[in-house]
Amino acid sequence: MSAVPNIDLNDGNTIPQLGFGVFQIDPSETAESVTEALRVGYRHIDTAEMYGNEREVGEGVRASGLDRGDVFITSKLNNSYHEPEDARRAFDETLSALGSDYVDLFLIHWPLPTLYDGDFVSTWKTMEEFKGDGRARSIGVSNFQIEHLERLAAETDTVPAVNQIEVHPYFTNDAVRSYGQEHGIATEAWSPIAQGGVLEDSTVTRIADRAGKTPAQVVLRWHIQRGDIVFPKSVTPSRMQENFEIFDFELNSTDMEEISDLHQDEHGRTGPHPDTFDKVPS
Ligand SMILES: NC(=O)c1ccc[n+]([C@@H]2O[C@H](COP(=O)([O-])OP(=O)(O)OC[C@H]3O[C@@H](n4cnc5c(N)ncnc54)[C@H](OP(=O)(O)O)[C@@H]3O)[C@@H](O)[C@H]2O)c1
Fold it and tell me: For residue 21, how far is its CA from the centre of ligand 1 (angstroms)?
């Protein structure tokens, strides 16, 4: 049995709390990285159409010899395709690239409130079709702020299963996380180690030394104990292994508080702000 806990989603499905992210993995390295991650024990892969490596994720899963049903795969809608007809075509292409007739979780990658007349609601209603026909087992959003989630609640029938947002010790994003907790939306924490940016922090290294663990293990453990879903990215097999070994120790409440206190408000954010981000691939 895997040490990785499953998190219950609001639609009755479950998701492994620890997965493997493939953002910025070159397509030429992706299949091998995914196969290695699955060998280590990961059973959850997080990709996106905009990462340009969905095809290679599918190849890596097939090369592992595991059954498709044993691996949880997430992908996300490209920012260029929020119009319903485009979203339908893009979703078909995601399934075709993955070489699968379903995806476990499909997300709106960014809300893009300054584009498409701010109409992510019709995009969400199109996502509901994918859930309805069973080709997306679960649907969710990414980078949605509270006001975006409130609009979905007011204008549509389906509560997103997850909201995938930037969360790490320098940017704890607690208001959006709390909204999710109150409304049954699981939080997925992207860039969980801030792309390495929190690993030399003296609070993190002191706790790691005491626990006999590495800084990355301590930070990932902090996420797990907060209840969030994480999928650190690495192309380095020893780090994939390291990041997987976080279920044999516990942080105490003082450790948890000290790490949470590293929050730097908006200064800690490393990615774009969801209210203004408007990048659309050409
Ligand atoms: N929805 C969104 O808008 C969004 C945005 C960003 C990310 N994401 C998702 O979240 C996933 C994770 O985020 P991320 O890739 O931005 O960053 P991350 O997982 O926080 O950090 C990845 C970086 O840390 C290094 N690293 C990994 N494990 C390490 C360890 N144990 N010790 C030292 N360095 C280590 C990796 O290097 P090497 O690879 O060289 O080993 C890589 O440079 C992505 O892959 C993607 O699936 C989603």
Answer: 7
